[in-house]
Amino acid sequence: MDRIGELERKYVNEVLANGFASAKNYSFVTRLEKEFAEKFNVNYAIAMVNGTVTLHAALEAAGIGEGDEVIVPALTMSSTNMSVLFANAIPVFADIDPNTWTISVEDIKRKITSRTKAIIPVSLYGLSSDIDAIMEIAGNHDITVIEDDAQCFLGYYKGRIVGSTAHMSSFSFQAGKHMTSGEGGMVTTNDADLAIKLRRFSGLGYGSIGLEKGRISKDDIQNPDYERHVMLGWNYRPSDLCGAVALAQLQRLDELVEARKYAAKVLKEAAEECKWLTPQMTPANYENSYWTMVVRLDTDKITWQDFRNKFKEFGGDGIYGAWMLGYLEPMYRTQNFMGREKIIARYGDYRYERGICPVAEKIQPRLFQFKTNYWDREAAEKQAEILHKTVQFFNASLF
Ligand SMILES: Cc1ncc(COP(=O)(O)O)c(C=O)c1O
To answer: Which one of the listed residues 39, 111, 117, 177 is annotated catalytic?
Structure first.
């Protein structure tokens, strides 16, 4: 199987043949939104240029702004917490569950204050958080839940598709994701009011934009008295070229996700008998879509580097460490927030330092992320064999 196939080429050629004529421009983006909403079982899907601005737009649509606190997990890619700063709000980091490594429901409860206005749980490595529990807490405190599903396509939570279970959900089509258009993103929601705010915010606040994208007539647009903008908005609209590729990928999503799940399965089996590598726990009733297959190193006899070096020596590829925890990055340590540090200082003495999330601090340096983007089974099986050989090597020499 090829990751990019005939369908993607066909659609891109159609866009080019249309010549970006205004009558046809955005037709692929519009189809993508419609079919994405159907596939993810939601009323509305709004496409944007990437899976970072989607989070920003979702926060703005929820009315999050200056001085509001937004709870984010410590272990995630930086866009989750940076988007909070885009909205002039304050990121509050919650710890992770010791087994699933997704946001800890208990720590969310501890971190809630009267200023908490949103939570952004992340479906980490392809696994949903305990979203029912989070929605219940949110309901009790009038908090908006924006799920960051950049890494989770066709994951399931208690029988429901991930992306349909929060107030809004955000996806990324960046090159490393389950489906891609190089860059791209989507927000899903069932709420018509949020959907229209998302559309207007991501489309320069054009009054002509409705729940469906909406078109302005030539007479209107040429009229010097025409009033266009009903609110402040950013321009986060994707190109129809990206729409074309993403639509083809969406129509092929089942096979793209299956390939990753197969790679994860054989990699997991290869590490199964190993007592010192523990895979991410997928609770009963959850379906992990395995953006990556991740294990934790549970011994001090081997270092992270030792293991990676041996795996590579045996011919392995694609073994990544987990991202540094958000608040331990230099930008947080120094509060280099492009001026927003002054806003934050007005609301309290927020400190981003070691000790905030002890479970995540312990686990993050011990994670190995194995790639699952092998488009033919043999390539995945080869990596699994190498993993098995690496485990056997250390078992024989150290244990
Ligand atoms: C959890 C998470 N959130 C957000 C993003 C940002 O997406 P993008 O790169 O499309 O901006 C990514 C990936 O890049 C991600 O992994």
So the answer is: 177
